[in-house]
Amino acid sequence: AARPRRVGGSIFRFLPREPSSMRRLSADEGKVAVVTPDGCGCLESAIVGCLFCCHRCSSERLGSAMAFFPPKPPSYFLVEDVTGKCHARYRDGGSQIAAGSRLAAYDAEYVDTKRGNKIVVLSMDAPSGCDPVTAITLIVSHGNALDCALFVPFGRRLRDSLGVNIMLYDYSGYGTSTGKATPKNVYADLTAVVAWAVRHKKRHPSRIVLYGQSIGSAPTVWYAAQAGVAWDGALQKDGAHLQKNTTNNANASRVKKNKVVAEETNEQSRERLTVGSPSSTEHLQTRANPKPQTRANPEYHQIGGVVLISPILSGLRVISGSNQCCSPANVFGLCDVFPNHKAVAKIRCPTLVMHGKRDVQVPFSHGETLWKGLVGAKSLDLLLDDSEKINHPSESNPGGSTSKALSDVHEITHPSPYWVVDAGHDDVYERNQLEFVTRMKRFCESVVRTADRQELSRLREEGVFNGIRNDAERVRSTFEFNATRDDAEFERDAERNAASADPSGSAQTSVNLTGNDSSNNTSAPGNSRFAKTARRDDGAPVKTQTMTR
Predict the structure, then answer these.
(1) Average pLDDT, the chain
(2) φ, ψ at 523 (rounded to 5°)
(3) What is the pLDDT of residue 496?
(4) Euclidean distance between CA atoms 451 and 444, whole angstroms
């Protein structure tokens, strides 16, 4: 019932002979559009099965061939100056004249990935008047069929209107990046960019927002999900350790109440009650750090937020629906690439979703389903005067009034989505620029407030820890000084006792540490005696003859 035709040398479209009795599934450029009878997905599954066989039954190969279409040739190239710094230039003369100055304002660098590829990163700091360290860093994963240089004008507009640091990168095989675009390579690319931003650019992860558009939503959702999984693992370890400590403390208290303590000796009492004893110092250090500092996987940083523009549910759900049991999304579900519908529930940071209601390339239902799949997805008015008050009811909080910071609450509250009326796949911004910028700005401001509260909490914790640590060090120093002083007094008393027990009167030659002998107070004023204490070159005292005047 369908007649195949080759389009563009690599894309197959199946056109119907009888449009009235057929159903055509829309797809964006570079995807497979399949025409099947109404209510049946068998033909779609058969075609996808043939494609799997052609690519050696590898979803990685199929995803690389059908999902990524980098522009050939690239729209830009990199040149290196005498100092070794790279600069980007447009290949087309018209583009270089129109937007060459904007492209030249970006810093271009190559970043190595764990899969051995070198990807291009274009970065620009926040505009003047904004501190790049405290400003939001927006890492953009662009859509298909374009490279980062084609995204530069819009990226510059976002940077100027939002006051953020902007980072654009090309996937492996896009632009002048090396390698080939595959799902695993794309995941490694974003991981390398975030690590480079944290280590090289010194951007704090809580102030990083991942921006994914269309196919760029796949690595964005994947990275945020991996960070969420690592964060959940760290919380579980902390909870298990805290529960163990609580149980041990309860058992110790019970044993202490039931135990009859024998009378301690004076020496044991002194050791236990000494303020500067090592045991008390260790106790102070234990109170300063009651549980180990469990960290999440350092490879995946807990970012501040995620923005998804026209996102996809999965690779197969773009070319077919999931309503029929025989659709490719159900038949080949285990081989599906970019399963955002499964990973989105693992995200543990605020997520803003935008989608056009008239999108025929990635249906509007994709964005709606993703937003509903977010854990604890609720509407959040980011225009609240008191940003710390969240008045949304939940199962654990029926009243809904709480003043805890988002960093102290495991359930993340996401902002309300933005469904753009009359917008397609690529014109979400153009349909209502003011509303788009307003929503983005509110979201970035909320991420900044959350990061500031986390920073303040961290500084307070560090201040308390530093105070306890300083107290412990002071107590330790006091204990050492007291021990040294007691040893000196013990030696002096021993020498005095030896001098008083000497019958030959050799006490005249004993060392007088204080310079004031109480036995001389009864002598006549004219016969008052005083002692001079001599010292050797190494500072040790030596015995001298007591002089009489």
Answers:
(1) 74
(2) -75, 160
(3) 80
(4) 11
- As a whole number, mean pLDDT of residues 422-439 equals 94
pLDDT at residue 509 in the model = 46
- In three-state secondary structure terms, 478 is helix
Helix (H, G, I), strand (E, B) or coil at 457: helix
354: left (phi over 0), alpha (psi -120 to 50) or beta: beta
Q: Which residues contact 191 (CB under 8 A, 6 or more apart)?
A: 113, 114, 223, 299, 300
Residue indicated by tokens 């163990």: 244
Helical residues (DSSP H) of 18-92, grouped into ranges: 42-54, 59-67
| CA atoms of 46 and 35, how far apart (whole Å) | 12
Does the pLDDT at position 288 exceed 60? no
Q: How far apart are the C-alpha atoms of 118 and 185, rounded to whole Å?
A: 11
The 10s digit of each residue's pLDDT in 174-221 is: 999 999 999 999 999 999 999 999 999 999 999 999 999 999 999 999
Query: Over the stretch 212-269, which tens digit does the pLDDT of each residue have?
Result: 999 999 999 999 999 988 888 777 766 565 555 666 665 655 555 554 444 444 444 4
CA dist., res. 478 & res. 353, Å (int): 60
CA separation for the pair 209, 304 (Å, rounded): 6
pTM (predicted TM-score): 0.66
**Burial classification of residue 516, based on how many CB atoms lie within 10 Å of its CB (0-12 exposed, 13-18 middle, 19 or more buried):** exposed
**If you ran DSSP here, which 8-state letter would residue 390 be given?**
E
Residues 6 or more apart whose Cβ sits within 8 Å of residue 389: 401, 402, 403
At 189, give phi and psi (nearest 5°): -65, -50
Tell me what pLDDT residue 262 has. 43
Which residues, other chains included, contact 517 with Cβ-Cβ below 8 Å and sequence gap of 6+?
529, 531
Q: Cα separation of 233 and 294, whole Å? A: 9
Residues whose CB falls within 8 Å of the CB of residue 229, separated by 6 or more in sequence, listed in order: 300, 346
Contact 531/538 with Cβ under 8 angstroms? no
Pull the structure tokens for residue 14. Answer: 């199946």
- Cross-strand partners of 165: 137
**Structural tokens at position 106:** 């970006």
Please check whether residue 105 is in contact with residue 209, taking contact to mean a CB–CB distance below 8 angstroms: no
Most confident of the following: 17-26, 223-232, 452-461: 223-232
Q: Report the SS3 class of residue 40.
A: coil
* Residue ranges of E strands in 228-381: 305-309, 351-356
